[in-house]
């Protein structure tokens, strides 16, 4: 056998894709890490996660053979990152997939060819071992048929892929023998075998034979279409070709480790010390952070934003261990981009934006980190003061959850002080948080069950709504009730579903809502209303219809779109494109669409932007859109191939998948985008564009709602009416004088408030003379304890300041009723504080009498309550406390 090839990570990835492309597979680009229309996932966590729509039958792929290298994130075992050879948060999963096409007879030989052929990976067959499910005799036979030695095939009961309800089946795992020199166990250890817990036999590929449907009754029924789903970890395979003991010594991670060495305090990787773990954590986390932010996720306190924030904080803490005290992670972003440039050029293109987000978060956390260290030190002191040898689990979790302290860091600090950590208590708090996260993601199962009826419907249907909103002779080629084909449907309250050979009705897609309208028979009678249109699995426009008269399969009907509604939607859709471009021009190229809705009466546009938007920027965006409307630009639509569209500079949504032929909408030299929706012919048809609102709707996601044409006129008319009414109320003859009138009224109000405050201050001073005249004697000094009439706590504090400046007594207790609630304040002179008397102790004693509680400093404390009747009791208790 020839010597092991020396391949870069880019070569390993490309070779995998090229091999399956030669075997008729379509290369699917790596999808965004942020799932689209999938509430069951926080992140895309595998290659098959992006293929679910094909496997569950909701969409039929153009090519049933697919291959991808999919970036993925998993954080369920984040604590192991850096401590083991192959745990990562972000990784790439190489995979080939068959959707009802080939099965074991092809998948197994192809896997073997890729792995062992000198034209491809060229691995030594003697070093490869296979595991199979014991009952899967067919797979074993195919493996043996291609020449695998019987002693290189092992049976394992765990070789069955099952996620609950949905597709499932046996699988085969492929292991590579790295040699005993790579092992962490002795050769005769019981775990030293392919599939055991050891470092010698490395699992590199898992081939799932998806052939059963796991039913709600917990039975396994054969699937009508058998599928292939495979997964090969790129990082693992690369470690083989680069003779790396762990994944971190490959070209995917080493440049990041070297870059970290340069900014560390003379730390060097490879010394088999605790420093190595920190280097690995940083290299791993910065990859995940960079790609996540590049895919429009941003740090926050919830969901995937919390994951990013947690990763940044763990990396910063590990940087501290390496002597890095300033922000540094952001400096590693270009290195990530350079490593991944061959397949992910967008990382370098967006490096400045990604780095700015990370630096902002680092700066925030570096300030927080010091607070966390203060809390940790205080927690250690309290633990010792209470004569305990264990830090409370809830306190440890607060350090982890609020300040980003991993439990191992708290443990290290505790051990230095001779303490332990209540890790059971910590785990209990972590479990509560995980349950909250799972509940937030919903209970939907990971993959649906195939619908045979609509998958099998392959009749062609043409959409002609770009040019015609009426079709005179559309044939009803499929008429279905409850996914059952019928020859004639009768009127009913329940909707039916119809596919016509030609249709002017737009199917909801790309944020544009579906058309509605009428179905008319050859007698001119309306037989039904189209209430919704969606895409069937094979791409046809599927009409949801409420019938008023019978409708027959095979008959021809006139289809009429609600024209007025459709034209309003067109205006809003074109305005959405103008808004998208204007936001990019004003805010920067990093701004990306995060969702849109194009309705009849308004448009909604969500976009990624880190930070708020100024009123000036918003006005600039609005004016830029209107300027394109006033320019009267002709709208051009072109259908072309994908590469030609990209050469035209067309903007593509990263979350969308595009076929070989795409439709491009071009608005002069202002905007060019991929789009399958309906648009006006000329921007002047939009009339006018007006932003209604702008606000944040999530971490790093902002939303603009806007209106056009008639709806914009109505908005402006309503606002003008409101202004006129305001002018009448304020007795202003012209609207333009309103701002001056309001400014004058504000000045008058401020003057009235100033006079009022002055009078209140005089009344408070006068009341102080009366109150401070009643000084009582107690065993612990003199006391003033009175109920007063003030407007709130601020005036109570003003009285307390006067009391302290005049040294009226040793202790002050004042109570006031404001809006049926009690405000209570206690002051203690500095001399009495030195003797051990504390205002906080007094307030805690007397506050229950007013039905409240409070606290404060030793020399001043305050409380609030809901029981005014208890004031006399509270004042009496204050005197009792001092006796």
From TrEMBL:
SUPFAM superfamilies: Class II aaRS and biotin synthetases, Putative anticodon-binding domain of alanyl-tRNA synthetase (AlaRS), ThrRS/AlaRS common domain, Translation proteins. Keywords: Aminoacyl-tRNA synthetase, ATP-binding, Coiled coil, Cytoplasm, Ligase, Metal-binding, Nucleotide-binding, Protein biosynthesis, RNA-binding, tRNA-binding, Zinc. Residues 7-718 form the Alanyl-transfer RNA synthetases family profile domain. One of its GO terms (molecular function) is aminoacyl-tRNA deacylase activity. The keyword DNA-binding does not apply. It is found in: Cytoplasm. Its cofactor is Zn(2+). Binds 1 zinc ion per subunit. Residues 735-762 form a coiled coil. Belongs to the class-II aminoacyl-tRNA synthetase family. This is Alanine--tRNA ligase. The gene is alaS.
């Amino acid at each position: 056998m020839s010597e092991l090839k020396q391949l870069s990570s880019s070569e390993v990835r490309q070779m995998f894709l090229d091999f399956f492309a030669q075997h008729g597979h379509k290369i699917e680009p790596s999808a965004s890490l942020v799932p689209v229309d999938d509430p069951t996932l926080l992140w895309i966590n595998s290659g098959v996660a992006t293929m679910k729509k094909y496997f569950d039958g909701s969409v039929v792929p153009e090519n049933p053979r697919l291959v991808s290298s999919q970036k993925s994130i998993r954080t369920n075992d984040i604590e192991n990152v850096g401590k083991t050879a192959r745990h990562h948060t972000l990784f790439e999963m190489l995979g080939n997939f068959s959707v009802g096409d080939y099965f074991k007879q092809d998948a197994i030989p192809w896997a073997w060819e890729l792995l062992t052929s000198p034209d491809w990976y060229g691995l030594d067959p003697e070093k490869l071992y296979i595991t199979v499910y014991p009952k899967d005799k067919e797979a074993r036979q195919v493996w043996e048929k291609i020449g695998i030695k019987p002693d290189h095939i092992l049976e394992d009961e765990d070789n069955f892929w099952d996620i609950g309800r949905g597709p499932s089946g046996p699988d085969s795992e492929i292991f590579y023998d790295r040699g005993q020199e790579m092992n962490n166990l002795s050769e005769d250890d019981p775990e030293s075998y392919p599939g055991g817990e050891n470092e010698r036999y490395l699992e590199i590929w898992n081939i799932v034979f998806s052939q059963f449907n796991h039913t709600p009754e917990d039975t396994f029924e054969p699937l009508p279409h058998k599928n292939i789903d495979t997964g090969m970890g790129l990082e693992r395979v690369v470690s083989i070709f680069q003779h790396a003991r762990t994944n971190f010594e490959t070209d995917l991670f080493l440049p990041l480790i070297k870059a970290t060495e340069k900014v560390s305090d003379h730390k060097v990787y490879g010394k088999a010390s605790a420093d190595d773990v920190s280097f690995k954590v940083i290299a791993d986390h910065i990859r995940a952070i960079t790609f996540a932010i590049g895919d429009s996720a941003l740090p926050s306190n919830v969901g995937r934003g919390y994951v990013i924030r947690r990763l940044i904080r763990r990396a910063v803490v590990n940087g501290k261990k390496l002597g890095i005290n300033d922000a540094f992670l952001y400096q590693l972003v270009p290195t990530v981009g350079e490593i991944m440039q061959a397949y992910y050029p967008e990382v370098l293109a967006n490096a400045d934006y990604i780095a700015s987000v990370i630096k902002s978060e680092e700066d925030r956390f570096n300030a927080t980190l010091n607070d966390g260290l203060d809390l940790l030190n205080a927690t250690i002191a309290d633990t010792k003061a209470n004569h305990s040898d264990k830090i409370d689990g809830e306190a440890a979790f607060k350090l982890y959850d609020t300040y980003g302290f991993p439990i191992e860091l708290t443990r290290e600090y505790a051990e230095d002080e001779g303490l332990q950590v209540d890790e059971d208590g910590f785990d209990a708090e972590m479990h509560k948080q995980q349950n909250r996260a799972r509940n937030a993601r919903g209970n939907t199962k990971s993959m649906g069950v195939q619908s045979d009826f609509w998958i099998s419907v392959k009749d062609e249907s043409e959409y002609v709504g770009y040019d015609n909103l009426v079709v005179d002779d559309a044939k009803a080629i499929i008429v279905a009730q409850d996914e059952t084909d019928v020859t004639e449907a009768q009127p009913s309250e329940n909707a039916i579903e119809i596919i016509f050979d030609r249709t002017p009705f737009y199917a909801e897609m790309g944020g544009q809502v579906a058309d509605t309208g009428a179905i008319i028979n050859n007698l001119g009678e309306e037989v039904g209303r189209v209430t919704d249109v969606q895409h069937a699995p094979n791409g046809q426009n599927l009409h949801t219809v409420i019938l008023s008269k019978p409708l027959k399969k095979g008959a021809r009907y006139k289809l009429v779109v609600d024209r007025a509604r459709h034209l309003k939607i067109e205006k809003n859709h074109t305005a959405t494109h103008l808004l998208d471009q204007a936001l990019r021009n004003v805010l920067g190229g990093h701004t990306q669409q995060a969702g849109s809705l194009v309705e009849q009466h308004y448009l909604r546009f969500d976009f990624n932007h880190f930070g708020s938007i100024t009123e000036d920027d918003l006005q600039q965006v609005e004016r830029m859109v209107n300027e394109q409307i006033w320019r009267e630009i002709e709208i051009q639509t072109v259908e072309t191939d994908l590469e030609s569209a990209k050469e035209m500079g067309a903007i593509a949504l990263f979350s969308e998948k595009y076929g070989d032929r795409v439709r491009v909408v071009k608005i002069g030299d202002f905007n060019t985008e991929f789009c399958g929706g309906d648009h006006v012919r000329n921007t002047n048809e939009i009339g006018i564009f007006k932003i209604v609102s702008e606000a944040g709707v999530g971490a790093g996601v902002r939303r603009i709602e806007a209106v056009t044409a008639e709806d914009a006129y109505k908005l402006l008319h309503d606002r003008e009416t409101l202004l006129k009414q305001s002018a009448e109320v304020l007795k202003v003859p012209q609207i333009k004088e309103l701002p001056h009138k309001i400014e004058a009224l504000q000045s008058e109000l401020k003057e009235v408030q100033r006079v009022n405050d002055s009078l209140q201050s005089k009344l408070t001073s006068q009341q102080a003379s009366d109150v401070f005249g009643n000084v009582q004697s107690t065993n612990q000094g003199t006391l003033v304890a009175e109920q007063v009439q003030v407007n709130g706590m601020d005036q109570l504090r003003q009285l307390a300041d006067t009391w302290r400046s005049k040294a009226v007594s040793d202790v002050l207790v004042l109570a006031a009723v404001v809006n049926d609630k009690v405000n209570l304040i206690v002051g203690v002179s500095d001399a009495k504080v030195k003797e051990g008397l504390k205002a906080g102790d007094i307030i805690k004693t007397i506050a229950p009498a007013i039905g409240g509680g409070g606290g404060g400093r030793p020399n001043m404390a305050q409380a609030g309550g809901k029981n005014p009747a208890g004031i006399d009791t509270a004042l009496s208790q204050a005197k009792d406390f001092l006796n």
